Amino acid sequence: MIETGDLVMLANQEDRQGRTKVTAVTNRLIWIEAPSEVSTLKTFILSDQEQVGFYFFKEKGKLYGFETEVVERQNDPLRGQRYALRRPKEEMIQRVQRRQFVRVPQLLDVAVHPHKTAFEPFTSVTLDLSAGGILVLANQIPIEVKDELELTFILPTGDGVTHTVDVLAELVRVDPRETRYELAFQFTRINDRSRELVLRHCYQAQMKNSRRGTNPFT
Q1: Does the predicted TM-score (pTM) go above 0.70?
Q2: What SS3 class is residue 100?
Q3: Type III secretion system flagellar brake protein YcgR PilZN domain spans which residues (predicted)?
């Protein structure tokens, strides 16, 4: 299930979140590059026997994870710092529920387009966002639950720079709201670069809320 070249996320006991890449997989070990912290992009050090959570995406954007530990550190002259993590048995790898993603309130313009089911495209706004899905406010319900459509939204990435995110998303829930609807979508196709930007954006928003003492994610 885990392959060389996979992009993965790590979370340590200090709640630091890092992005890294798998460089090798053996029967007992998973080798990774030194992780870069999501919020700052700075590389951070892992200690021997440190416990970490390991998360990766497979099968149309489904998130899987497991707990593991650092069993070896290695300073490769060509690749830099590398870590060997204990590889679990396949039955120990579990799918992570979408609600475990960091989700932040977020007002973004979003364009909604048909994928397989025909309807008139429309624009609206988002209500919240995570690396796994998005909540959209709409005047209509264009598709049925479990159907897919295409979403495009503009994500601010700092210093006045924006990034256009195109995703394929499945409608998982509809909540009536007076004369409109809240449409909850789960991403089923999003490229790695876009998912990284969304995840970083959400964690930065979480950190800002934490500093103000208004963290809605705990």
Answers
A1: no
A2: helix
A3: 13-79
Identify whether residues 26 and 86 lie together within a single domain. Answer: yes
- How far is 10 from 191, CA to CA, in rounded Å? 19
- Do residue 52 and residue 32 come from a single domain? yes
Buried b (16+ CB within 10 A) or exposed e, 69-100: ebbeeeeeeeeeebbbbbbeeeeebeebebee
Instruction: Report the DSSP beta bridge partners of residue 30.
Output: 25, 85
Q: Which residues pair with 138 in a beta bridge?
A: 181
d(CA 65, CA 54): 5
Return the biggest CA–CA distance within the chain.
Answer: 62
For 122-157, write each residue's pLDDT tens digit: 999 999 998 888 999 999 999 999 999 999 999 886
- The alpha-helical segments, DSSP class H, found in the chain are 192-211
Q: Are residues 111 and 202 in the same domain?
A: yes
Q: Which of 79, 96, 113 is the last residue in one of the domains? A: 96
Residue 24 DSSP label:
E
Asked if residue 216 belongs to a domain, the reply is no
CA distance 164 to 40: 21
Give the structural domain span for 114.
104-211
